[in-house]
Records
---
Amino acid sequence: MSNKGTPVDRTSELMVTQEVPGISRCLEEAHSLDEFSTSHKEVLSTNNMKKPEVSGVMTEADIKPKSIHDAKKWSADVENLYRFQQAGYRDEVEYKQVKQVDTVERWPETGFVKKLQRRDNTFNYFDKQRECKDKEVHKVKVYVY
C-alpha cells in the first residue's frame, strides 16, 4: 500500500533544534558529575510549544456590514467616511480592526479624522477643513451594521 501522491500530516513529527546559549558549559559540568547526559542542543517538539490565544479583537474582526449604499448629501459623517476610504478602509470599524487601535486621531476643532495609517504602513494626513468635494460625495460608500 503506497501513500504516493497522498498528503500526509507531519506536523506532530516536526522537531525544532534550538541553540541554547551557555547551556553547553552547564551540561559539561553535569556530565562530569554523571548526573545526566545530553548534548548542547535542545530538541523541542511543536506539540509542547505554547500557542497564541485568540484575543477578543480577533473575534470582533468578523463584523461585516449588513448593507451598503452611496452617500447622497455631504455631512460630517460622510466626510470621515471619505477619509477612511481614501486611506483604503471601509470605515472606522474596519480601520480599528485592521490596525488594532482604540482611537483615531481627529482634529479637535472639527472632529474630522486627522491622520490614518494605510495598509502599506504609510500615512494619510488630512486638513481641518472639508476635503470631500460635492462632486465626490456620491462615490462615498455608507455601510450599515
---
Amino acid sequence: MAGGWRAKAQAGGMLLALLGWVSSCVTTFVPLWKSLNLDLNELEVWTMGLWQVCVAREEGAVECRAHSSFLALPAELRVSRLLMCLSNGLGLLGGLLAAPGLEGWRAFEEKPGLKRRLLLTGGVALGTAGMATLAPVSWVAYNTVLDFWDDTVPDIVPRWEFGEATFLGWFAGAFLAAAGLLLACSARSTGTAMPPASTCHQPPAAPRPAEGHHLHSKNADLVI
C-alpha cells in the first residue's frame, strides 16, 4: 500500500512540475504582466511585461517595443527578471534530478539511497522554484494595486491593472511548490519505510539421545 501511494505521489508531482515549469517560462517572456485601457482611445490596449511593452489596436495589429534600459526599470521589474530566470533554471534542474529517483525509473536500482537523495534534492529545487515564481508575481501585483488606488494621481490618468500573466504566474508557482512537496514527502516516506518482517524461525529440535545410550539400555534389559 505504501509503495502504491509513493508511486502515485511521484507521478502527480512530476506532472505538476511539468505544468508549473512550462507556465513559469510562459509567464517570464509574455508581455502580459500589466494591462492598460485608455478611456480617451478605447481602440488601443497597452500591455507590459518584464522585457517589453506592447500596444494592440482594434484592427489586430500589435506593436511591441523592448525596454530601453535594465537600470531604468522599476525595482520590482528588475528583481522579477532575475527571480523568474532563477525559477526557470531551478525548475528544469529539479525535474532532471527527480526523474532518476522515481520508483518506475530503472536507473540506480542497485543504489536506493542515491535514488532517495536525488528525489529529495529535486523536490527541494522545485519547491524553491515555486517560491521564486510566487515572490516576483506577488510583488508586481501588490505594487499594481497600490498604484491603482493612489489618491495622489488624478482620476483622469489611466491606471495599470492585472494582466493575464499575473494569474498564470500564481498558478505556476503553486504547481511548482506542490510538486516539490509531493516529491520530497515521497522521498522521506521511502527513507523511513520499515524493513520487511523476518520469516518465522522454527524452534530448535529437541536434542536426540546419543546412539550409545540406546545400546546400553538394550543390553541392560537382556541381562535382567
---
Amino acid sequence: MESQKPQIQQPHALQTPSETTHHSPLSGFASNFAGKMKTNLGFRSKWAELNGAMGDLGTYIPIVLALTLADDLNLGTTLIFTGIYNIITGAIYGVPMPVQPMKAIAAVAISGTGFGVPEIMAAGIITGGVLFVLGITGLMQLVYKLIPLSVVRGIQLGQGLSFALTAVKYVRTVQNFSTSKSMGNRHWLGLDGLVLAIVCACFIVVVNGAGEEHRVETETNGDLGGDEERPRRKKSILRNIIFSLPSAFIIFLLGVILAFIRKPKIVNDIKFGPSSIEVVKISRHAWKEGFIKGAIPQLPLSILNSVVAVCKLSSDLFPGRDFSATSLSVTVGLMNVIGCWFGAMPSCHGAGGLAGQYKFGGRSGGCVALLGTAKLVLGLVLGTSLVKILNQFPVGVLGVLLLFAGIELAMASRDMNTKEESFVMLTCTAVSLVGSSAALGFVCGIVVHLLLRLRNFSKDQPLSTIWMDAP
C-alpha cells in the first residue's frame, strides 16, 4: 500500500501552474473546436441527411442554369464557391443552412438586356456589403426584434406559395430557362412528361407524408398469438423500409439518368477540369447599373427572407438552437463581398431552401456540407461543361422538388392563433404575391399591424406597446 502512495500523489506534484497555463488553453480550445465541428457536421441519419441535401435543388438548379445560359455565368466557379459556402455554414450553424441564388438579381439578369456578369457581380458585392455592415453594427438584430411575427409569417407564406406556383408552372409547361419563358403545355408522356412528374410527386407523398417526423414502429401486442403477430410485424417492417427511403435523392438520381437517356451525345461534350477563375472587371457603369437595377430590389428581399425569415424558421424547426440575425447577416455579406469578385453567383440563405432540406430529412450541418462537397467536386472535375447535363435534366422533376419545398415553407405560418394575426399575415402575403415584391408586402403588413394596434390602443397602456406587442 505504501508503494502506491507516491503514484497517486505524483500527478498532482507534476501539475505546476506554469505548465497548466502553457498547455491547457491551447488543448482546451482544440478540444472544444473539434467537439463542436463533430457535433455540427455529424449525421443524425446518413440516408436522411443525403436526402435532405437534395431539398433545395428545385430552386438552385433552374436559376443557376438560366444565368449560365443567358448571361454566361461561370458555372464551375459558382459551384466551387457555393460548395465552400455550404461546408462553412454547415460547420458554423450545425443545421441545414442553405446557400441559394439571390433571386431579385437573377430575375433582372435573366429578363433584362445590358445586365451581364459585371453588373450581376456589382449588385452582389453592394448587397453583401450592406448586409455585412448591418450585421457587424448590430442593426440587423434590432430589425429582427422590431418586426412583428405576423409580418414575418406573411413573408414566409408569400414566398412559399410563390415557390409552389412556380413549381406547378415547371410541371405543366415546357420551360426555356435562357429566356425565362414558357413554351407551351407539357406532353403527358415522355422522359419529361406530366405522368413522370405526377408519379414522382405521389412517391414523395407516400414516403414523406405531410412532413411529420416518422417513428420506427416497434410495438407489438403481447396478447396476440404467434400466427397473428407475424403478419403485423412484417407489415411494420415494410412500412419502416418505405418511410426511410431517401425519396428526393432517388428522384434526383432518376433525373440525372434520364438526362443522359434524353441526349446520349452529351457525354462527348463533357470536358474534365475546373474552369479558370479570374477577377471580374467591373466598370463605373456596371457599378451604377448593378446598384440601381440589382441591389435596390434585392436588399429588402435579402433582409426579410434571407435573414429575418431564416432566423425565425431556424428557431421554429430547431428549438433550443440560438440563431442570431447578426451572424446570418454577416455570413451572407462575406459570401458575396468575397466570391462575387471572382465571378461566383450572388448567394444568400433562404427560408425556402431551409424548409426544403428539412422536409426531406436534413437535420444537421452535415447535410449541407455533403451537398457542398458534391458541388466542389463537380466544379473541380467538370467545370462549366456540367451545364450540358443540367440542360437535359427533366424540368418537371425539378418542379416536384420545388413544390414540396414551397409547401413546407408556407406551413410555417400555421401558428397564427388569432384572427388579427392572421389578418396581418394574409394582407402581407396577398400584396407580396400580387405585387411580386416581398418589400411591398412587408410595408403593407407593417402598416396594417400599426393600424390594428392603434385601433385597440388604450389610454392606460404605454405608447411603446403599439409597436412591440403583437396584435
